């Protein structure tokens, strides 16, 4: 469950981490009043459980209350990354000297917490890490021993960061780790963690992801945190929930229909392996094949989808039964994009014949070939637009 920025900042402030002065507004008048109370230049930040709000127009600046009112009126009710903006955080403007990055997260590799720190913070940290992985330093933590100030100093020192703010940075990273542990969180991230011209360290953003299964052990979290829109997905994800489908919207262009969570995850990994980006996670195994038409409509309603990959592998579940549901859906919806099949397991001969007879198509003998073709088609269609 992802918390909104202002909720995460409340938790950060409770650990002693400095945050800018701010107020949450749900109307344009509220935003103007908040700007008056804060004084000076303010920033209005859409409160949605999505990243890269700045690039999507979800963060605006205002020099006076009337400008703040106008900016809030434009943001409230708008849709950003599939999320409807219901509230904005009006926050004091900060004179930034340097943007840093700090996070604590669950690390599958070390099977424990991992502390990350970089002197190259900002909204493009993912691209920075992919382009120059050495800019992000990591520190696996032995959960039995915990995080020490000495190890944090070593981590910061690896980046060549100046000594003058070491104490405050060390305290901040230790506080992030304590919060991560106390909440049993999946992720506690501050990006950017900024140093002002006066040398103060402030958390300008907060991204906290909680394990829903652990919430019963955390009575200190108010009802606002556990029942607000923070765990709501995009519009398509909410439609998926209503249909009883396991659907997660992603940022790629290859639409995916597969059976079984394991095979679906493998399909996503294969799309990445061949240079593509999946548009969704959607598992339609079990009785979900009976919802093939609304499931396919869900995938196709994502405007980023440029090709469709259908990957079925059956043992107890018959692939011909699942395939018939998808073929019926394709005949009904008639999508204007290329479709690629990989079908193996129980009933595959009948399923392959079904695709050939009714769609005039031939499934690929190897999953990798189907994935590669879907990736190339998505990239080719995108390049041609």
TrEMBL record:
GO terms for molecular function: ATP binding; metal ion binding; succinate-CoA ligase (ADP-forming) activity. GO terms for biological process: succinyl-CoA metabolic process; tricarboxylic acid cycle. The keyword Translocase does not apply. One of its GO terms (cellular component) is succinate-CoA ligase complex. Residues 9-221 form the ATP-grasp domain. Keywords: ATP-binding, Ligase, Magnesium, Metal-binding, Nucleotide-binding. Pfam families: ATP-grasp_2 (PF08442), Ligase_CoA (PF00549). It comes from the Bacteria. Gene3D superfamilies: ATP-grasp fold, A domain, ATP-grasp fold, B domain, Succinyl-CoA synthetase domains. PANTHER family: SUCCINATE--COA LIGASE [GDP-FORMING] SUBUNIT BETA, MITOCHONDRIAL, SUCCINYL-COA SYNTHETASE BETA CHAIN. This is Succinate--CoA ligase.
